[in-house]
Design brief:
The structure is a homodimer of 427-residue chains. By secondary structure, chain A is an alpha+beta fold. Chain A contains 9 helices and 23 strands. Chain A has a 5-stranded mixed beta sheet with strand order 4-3-12-7-8. In chain A, strands 5, 6, 9, 10 and 11 form a 5-stranded antiparallel beta sheet that branches. The first copy, chain A, is globular. Chains A, B: Its EC number is 1.8.2.1.
Chain lengths: 427, 427
């Protein structure tokens, strides 16, 4: 059990009675009333669909499995008007349909600059060149001979929530916050490969490069590479998916997504940053005065309520209600998440449940007795360095509204009395 | 970083030199020699396949993603002669092709007794009846109103390694040990549902029942249910897969797989065990004297080396070699794994890397400098209660060879000088 065990126990039946929340009443009323009637009166409800009247598919039917047909709407979605062409665009993780902290591989959001490169691992190579004692080229088999690590990390696009800088735009957490996924990686610490090549004394920066047609490059300080970067080849146990950089990608924990170069084919070692396209005209933060912040790599402390949310309204009448969401920080772990039902006037601590790792998503819950009146839901995360997620207005006061990157402002959902939910802003 | 950080640092370049293992030499020789030549002489090797000469699929191509075509052999496999019909059979997780501790949903082994029930969650119900104050029927929406937990647990079939009781039979860890998977579950603690129904004072046992044509039932002691059982509805973040009990299954952490009733539709509360088919004629352990052990629910401490293994031979010449495997215990966590290269004569501690959870798989590594001579690989796990994984001979001395269940004996792989690997036994 976690450190939140005591909190968790509270909502049990006796716990509810103790705390004065009418769980018994709430559950016995509303839609749950139907079940008691059904149970006492008519066990035929169990026979309504005769799942148990026929044999299903055998163990030879699905060598590689897929979700139920009843889950056909649980998919990544793109927004056609957002970009000129889907080969240089993004789709979004359906956060409102997931739970826990692991994003299944088939639902991890995609961001490409030239479409999905289809790389044959037998032909793929990783070169390390530049300020090293000896330039090296590794096959996949070579990489398998270095020690490996397993770590769970979030990967968030710097532009996640970017459309929201100028006000509530997109109606659903899939679209406002879905440029994030959270995966267990297996990979070789980059420091081992660099040590194998031997770093020159003036080595200070790296330039990882992708094998796709975009030839994605980003300047990465050497210190970060030696700290915790991985050359990752597995996600959630199996090979990287093609859209996530198969056969290898760079993992740059806690830092913005496009530094996690996919289809990684080369790492150049240099003594200064390269100022390439994707770190000058893009992935810098244009301030109100026309100057741009650069090297804003670290992803700030952030959270979002995934249920209820515009794509996941409350489907029951008033009574006991489960609110849940995700929180994360590029600086470390999440120590606390607060939830407000009234647009930030009053805050109560949420229950964080499940594993807590550095630079990984955390799952939080807040169970409450909904009286059926409208709500303004907000969540506010605090990380292990004590940094508190700001309001959008506080962010705008400092950064203006020119940038599309690094919006970690508090999100507000307006729950109407009928249970529908809308993306709104409150001041 | 984990508690094994110091161990992990050791194999770095300087670490290798210090420890006297010729990592530099080993890597510079053998297949890695090719890379240095290529890097210095001819950068055209990077152009061999022109991944970067064309645009790939866009973000609208794969609403739900799938593995690369180059991973087409990473699949669950069944053994046709093992059972009369694939609707009551098993397939096996390809452990030798995975890493880390998470099993991706598409590769989790399947065991059905009447095929995969295809259940519509909108029509599905969970009934609790028997020795309760009020019998209840829950819809899926009802279940979503109870507090949830997120936990990573292994699920192992009691018959995993069962064919090996009488000697080395199956040539590959997928077949000898692949009736296991390890997943992050999201679910409602069963105790909350039982408390909602109200337990009679004479309640002692539960009978969970599946909605498939087999109507799978197992007797579960109430104490276990109140301790850590979950009614699980998500695995690795998304809905349970159909073959894993969609929309809900019972999670019985650390206990044998067929108690984790899939397509869970009813839980009867009683005062004594039911002695149904799957806990009498099956899932009991027949001893040498003809009597059967029963209620052998807890899965014992166990481990297996997944690489190298018969399906994953060593592909390089002598030199630095990464050995890896999995270890788990139904009693708690794994505190230590030892590895032997000489059939159990000498043991060295392996490096456990990645999260350590109770009743979850642990990933271990052992890096060594292979001199190219034949090896007899073994792994031996020790759990948090101090229980040591036994040899197969030690197990047979106590239990005989009549049973197919609960074989947690030490596995031996014979590595030949060419790198091929065979399943063998040593005494």
């Amino acid at each position: 059990m976690t450190k939140n065990d005591e909190t968790l126990r509270a909502p049990s039946r006796r716990g509810f009675l103790k705390s004065g929340i009418a769980i018994g009443g709430a559950l016995a009323a509303a839609p749950l009333a139907a079940r008691a009637a059904a149970a006492e009166g008519d066990p035929a409800i169990l026979e309504k669909k005769d799942w148990n009247q026929y044999l299903g598919d055998g163990v030879d039917a699905r060598p590689y499995g897929h979700p139920s047909e009843f889950e056909a709407d649980v998919v990544r979605r793109n927004v056609a008007w957002l970009t000129a062409d889907p080969v240089s665009s993004v789709n979004f993780t359906p956060l409102h349909q997931l739970d826990g902290i692991i994003t299944p591989n088939g639902l991890c959001f995609e961001r490409h600059h030239a479409g999905i490169a289809e790389v044959d691992p037998a032909e793929h190579r990783l070169m390390i060149n530049g300020l090293v004692d000896r330039e090296l080229v590794f096959t996949m088999q070579d990489l398998m001979r270095f020690p490996r690590e397993n770590r769970v990390y979030f990967l968030e696009c710097a532009a996640n929530s970017g459309m929201e800088w100028r006000g509530a735009q997109l109606n659903g957490c899939q679209f406002t916050h879905g440029m994030i996924h959270n995966v267990m990686y297996t990979g070789v610490p980059l420091k081992y490969l660099l040590e194998e090549a031997g770093l020159k004394t003036n080595a200070k920066w790296l330039l990882p490069e992708g094998a796709d047609a975009a030839g994605m490059t980003r300047s990465v300080p050497l210190q970060k590479a030696l700290d915790d970067c991985l050359v990752a080849f597995k996600m959630n146990g199996e090979a990287l998916r093609p859209e996530q950089g198969y056969p290898i990608r760079l993992a740059v924990p806690g830092w913005e997504g496009n530094m996690w170069v996919k289809w990684l084919r080369r790492i150049e070692v240099g003594d200064e940053p390269w100022h390439h396209r994707e770190e000058t005209s893009k992935y810098t933060d244009l301030m109100a005065n026309g100057k741009a912040r650069r090297f804003t790599w670290e992803m700030d402390v952030k959270s979002v309520i995934t249920n209820p949310s515009p794509q996941a309204p409350i489907l029951h009448d008033k009574g006991f209600t489960v609110l849940t969401g995700l929180a994360w920080s590029g600086r470390g772990s999440i120590t606390r998440v607060d939830v407000s039902l009234d647009g930030g006037r009053n805050w109560r601590p949420a229950r964080i449940d499940g594993p807590s790792f550095d630079k990984s998503a955390h799952r939080f819950y807040y169970e409450f007795d909904w009286d059926g009146s409208p709500l303004l839901l907000q969540s506010r995360a605090i990380d292990s360095e004590g940094i508190v997620q700001p309001t959008k207005d506080a962010l705008r006061a400092v950064r203006g509204t020119n940038s599309i990157y690094h919006n970690n402002g508090i999100q507000t959902w307006h729950v109407k009395s009928g249970g529908e939910v809308e993306n709104v802003e409150v001041s």
